[in-house]
Queue: 3 jobs
Job 1
Amino acid sequence: MNLNNIIPFSIGSKLAIIIGVIIIGVGLWTPVNDYLTWRELQPPPLPSEAVSNISFTPTLTPIFTPTPTATLTPTPTEHHLISVVGTRDWLPTEQTATPTSTPTNTPTPTLTFTPDPYPPANSSPNRIVIESIEIDSPIVEVGWQLVEEEGQWFSTWETAKNAVGWHENSSKPGHIGNIVLSAHHNVYGEIFRDLVDVKGGDIVTLYVDDQAYHYSVRSKFILLDMWISDEVRQENARWIGQFTDKRLTLVTCWPYNFNSHRVIVVAKPLKQSVPTPTLPP
């Protein structure tokens, strides 16, 4: 039986069917690709030091190397490493043992440190630059508002329009704590549209007037923010709470066509100097 006699197809009809199949395939690939991206970028366990409010004072914990039994041969110079709880980079100190016939106690080492290259800022950041994804945007201060969902009231952060928002209760550059910045990704300038594309080691530069603060991206992950329990939502919110280290957290929605998830990017301060991005006048 010749099927062409039963269901005749013209060349135009066949071409239309092929185009339709291609369109359907492209349409299906977008949600599939988003799902694979979400599966790949699941968050690590939340650090135990994450808290809502904290007052933290760095302390020093010296680790002393036991003094060997002295002999008539001079003891070579030793390096005593200093372990610190805080944010300073401490340099090793040197001690030289004096030859003697009896053991002696190790003298208290003298601590020498490299000053933090970033002075504590007195105000919030006012500009952000991420050259790897071509972001150069002003930063404005944002607060929160109360919203009602199914008879319950929740506080939700406002999001800046055509700018990046600095959460008003988060830390300032150069201070211990979490600097939290958020922005839209598909409306009002789409400032953080490509935030999901940043990679480990990318440089994020914040400005407080003319002072630059450089950060290096350490981690990136995606959190589901719809169809979740209140407990999971509160656990997710801890990523924008305070921490006992210096960090920068960037937040936006995802994917582009459906705001069901949140992209979280965590960056840490750079200790070495880097070229400061050139800003337009």
Note: The first strand starts at residue 59 and ends at 62.
Job 2
Amino acid sequence: MKKLFCLAVLVCAVLLNAAVIGERADKPLAITGIDHIDEQNVLLHAYMERTKGNSYSVKPWTDTISLPPDLIEQGFRLIRRDIISKEGTFWMLDEDMEGFGYTCVLVMTLPESLGGKPVKIKMDFLASKTPDETEKLPQPQITSPVNNGVVKFRTPDYYPVFSYTGTGTVYRMLMNGHNGDEVIHRVLYAPSTRELSYKSTVDGCSYEVLVQQADNTLRWSEPARVSFKIVWGFRECTWCNGEGKVRCDRCYGSGQIYQYGTPSGYVKCETCNGTGKVECRWCWGQGWTYK
């Protein structure tokens, strides 16, 4: 009798778990309804429910929708996105709306074990046959440390900061590194250039920063661009090879010196404190010198 009871409990647990998994299954972004406002405008309703990355990781994922083929044939284009409601712990890393489709990249900010909740988002998209070009935001203005087309790194811990002004919120900054026609560096999607450092750039290479703005309905501004060339104003110290330290001349790098009368015959070198290296006097321990 006890075995039958345990078996029944096990079966119920399996069924309950299956039901929970079924309820929590991912629902990618999809169009749930279409309202025809008039001959020129259509409103599309969309919904997504995501648990991806909620249990064990916080990896981003991408959702995409497209205008139905019949609306595309009639000449409709997406011109506006409104978020009607949203739930869950997430960041919207990127969004893009290009006439016939919409793409968003999201990431869970917390796993479920730390209080994270599934993402649930309702969106409305306005599609029109006569998109109003005046809906675009004004072009932002970029102010930067570019001097005669050059950004000069003064020290290894220097980060150039590009600022920009205009209506709306700065939504993306694209940064491309070029060596001739070959793109040699990644594109950054961020309103910050902290990754633009001497470690991630190449001396003498040309770069371009592109800034666009968007408001809450994904109205876009015309892109503003600034091009420049990276020039390092310093070089790695050739005496210590950038390490900032050189071999101790007193102990010849061993960290200990001979002393008569001690049990081992050696004691710790006081000049280098037993490390075998001392501060480079050429760069004073910085590892770099000005050009």
Note: The chain has three domains: 27-134, 141-232, 234-291.
Job 3
Amino acid sequence: MTIPHASMSRPHGSQLIDVRHLRALDAIGRHQRLATAARDLHCTPSALSHLLSDLERALGLPLVHRDRRPLQLAPAGLRLAACAARVLPAIQQAGDELERLRSGSSGRLFISLECHSCFEWLVPALDEYRVRHPDIEMDLRAGANFDPYPALRDGSVDVVISCDGGAQPGTQADALFRYEVVAVLPPRHPLAGKPALAPADFAAATVITYPVDESRLDLYTRFLGPAGISPQRRRTAELTAMVLQLVASGHGIAALPRWAAAGAEASGSVALRPLGSGVWSQLAVLRRSSDREAVAIDRFVAIARKVSFATLEGITAPRSAPAVRATARSALRRR
């Protein structure tokens, strides 16, 4: 059987040329001496000559006029040298950018919040991070109707600050700290006379919360829900400061992290009481498992921990990240 001549054709030139060839021709074009070009490339003149000869044989074209002094590039060599002038700087730039990504000195850090009260310490942490790492592009996504977990999975954000503290499938949790969730009351409220509140104390109350589903509120999932208690009325406010103002004005009671309400308690505008024997939660930074070695995220976690313990009252060292709770909150995130 006769094999068609086309199947034995020479490989296309672009398949034969690599970065070594471009660097070699760029060096020869600049120095016009084989020995000097070889020194620039950290190789021997013999190795450089063999590299060019091999490519010339493969291409079927001369690249260098070896009989001329100083050494001159042939037309094919000039074409490749011009290509090298465009390509090599781009390769160098890409390599530099990859190195900055590896070292965490550039890239992006898009953050999403599940915890509404996190602004108390997050803004100072972001300020310090931006000063230390000015080449990192930063963004913050938050809002009552924004579900951060699908955004983390699809790459829209890089980390989620979670008040559940546990890793989701495909994520890694870096625990920041533990905090107590406490009842927030007007100072002269009848319940303020109690050393701690029971779930039944909320049955006839107006409860002021953030505008999120009950499955995302520790008060409901870890205190009222297990006792089968549903407050008489629920009112919402976006900001922690507004929740505190409404409570201080006698419009209802709330449950907040102790550190988020400590300033209002110190000023005498609200009273804080434990929920039962104490309800504790844990704040964590969640990242995709594929980003477990992302230096930019590691540095953010370190700064967030430092700023938190320097500025927040009543927090304690974190425990190991717990398994995902089999609660309505976990079911919400899987949707």
Note: Residues 1-8, 321-335 have pLDDT under 50 and may be disordered.
